[in-house]
Design a protein that fits this description.
55 residues, 27% helix, alpha+beta
Length: 55
């Protein structure tokens, strides 16, 4: 599933977001999402759901 968070798109594994709608995931991300950075990657961490990679 791909969601939009702060104007950018992030893709989550289907097994992490099963039984959730895009709207639900975006709402949780808006409330609790945090960016995590590595030298060659940027991840959106959403507690209770997992990591999404920037697409």
């Amino acid at each position: 599933m791909t969601i939009t968070w702060r104007g950018k798109q992030f893709k989550f594994r289907e097994c992490d977001v099963e039984d959730r709608t895009r709207e639900e995931v975006e709402a949780v991300a808006k409330e609790d999402g945090k960016m995590e950075y590595e030298p060659r990657a940027a991840w959106l961490f959403v507690p209770g759901i997992g990591y999404g990679w920037k697409v």
